[in-house]
Amino acid sequence: MDELQAKANKIKLLLLDVDGVLTDNRLIYGDDGQEYKAFYTRDGHAMVLIQKSGIDIGIITGRTSELVKKRMQDLKVKHLYQGVPDKLPTFEALMAKLGLSLDQVAYMGDDILDLPILRRVGLSACPKDSDPEVLSRVDFVSQFDGGRGAVREFCEFIMKTQGHWQTHMDFYLR
Predict the structure, then answer these.
(1) Is-contact 147 40, C-beta < 8 A?
(2) Whole-angstrom Cα distance, residue 4 to residue 142?
(3) Distance CA 96, CA 99 (A)
(4) Per residue in 130-160, pLDDT tens?
(5) Which of 42, 57, 89, 158 fits a 20 to 30 Å CA distance from 102?
(6) Which stretches does DSSP call E strand in the chain?
(7) CATH 3.20.20.450 correct for 3-173
């Protein structure tokens, strides 16, 4: 097992940013002032599967949005923290609450405000269109852009490493 797989094998919690990770980083506003975001359904399906594999998911995002709350409810995400521009204190509080060590946590972020967490977790990741400062400092760079399959690829990597992916495939191929 290589070093990256060894790190992935320990993961019990996957944390994600939203804008630029679960979305394509664009903010779209309607004439009514309403904010819109597009989520990639394959990312969402992978989030459901990884939770079925026994890995919790959490969201720590700088912005606040009702539609993010709704999407995370649909995906049954247990830990949602919005409106958190300084993410590190929230991350540390969540770690303490769950009693996890740093090597049991993975985080996917895309911008420099994610670096304090990315530098601490056991397994760090980012989409391929992330800020260059992030790209050069993570363990795993997805071959996909944010909001276009990066989360799916990262979830699959963790599940495959931990031996859960085949169980899901067996279910769908029956």
Answers:
(1) yes
(2) 13
(3) 5
(4) 999 999 999 999 999 999 999 999 999 999 9
(5) 42
(6) 13-16, 28-29, 35-36, 56-60, 79-81, 105-108, 123-126, 140-141
(7) no
